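Researcher: Please translate sequence to structure tokens.
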Amino acid sequence: MIIWNRLRYVLSPQFDIYEHLSTVVRGAVADIGSGTGFGTHLFTVNAQSVVGYEIDEDALRFAQRVFPVRRLAFRFGDILDGIQEGPYDFITMIDVIEHIKYDQRALKNVKDMLKPTGQLILSTPNRLSRYRKSENHVKEYGSKELESLLNKVFANVSMRDHKMEPLASQYQNPLLAVCRGGV
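Model: Translation complete:
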């Protein structure tokens, strides 16, 4: 089952996002909700260090076995409880926020892990799109809803598409946001 889920993941837009972000992230990087590490390991191309945090212990063990890469570590970490590590230059959350009931609390905990000049880059399926819906999502966001949530925690929020270009339509899927500075 875990292999099938990972194959679907590699063929999904998530992998495209990870691949593109691997050219963007530098320095100390954390990936919240790293799953089995198939995207996270790409960050080691340009980052000095990468830590993937995951709450699914099976996925975590898989990532630790499959990606014994220098400068890459996988750890148990629940962002709702707060992760007392960092500070990080970049934190990514690729298709994670839609699975979190207490989204604002999670984002505040992420902000606490960032350097003052650090950036959070997150993605989520667009609820206004007909693609990538899931019964496992606690909450789905449109671009305005996501931007409003992020503006409660971050001083500078920029909505983007999966290639980091400015969002051209409220229906683009997936949504990506780049967040800087605390409120």
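Researcher: Any highlights?
Model: The beta strands are 27-32, 47-54, 72-76, 88-94, 114-124, 154-160, 175-182.
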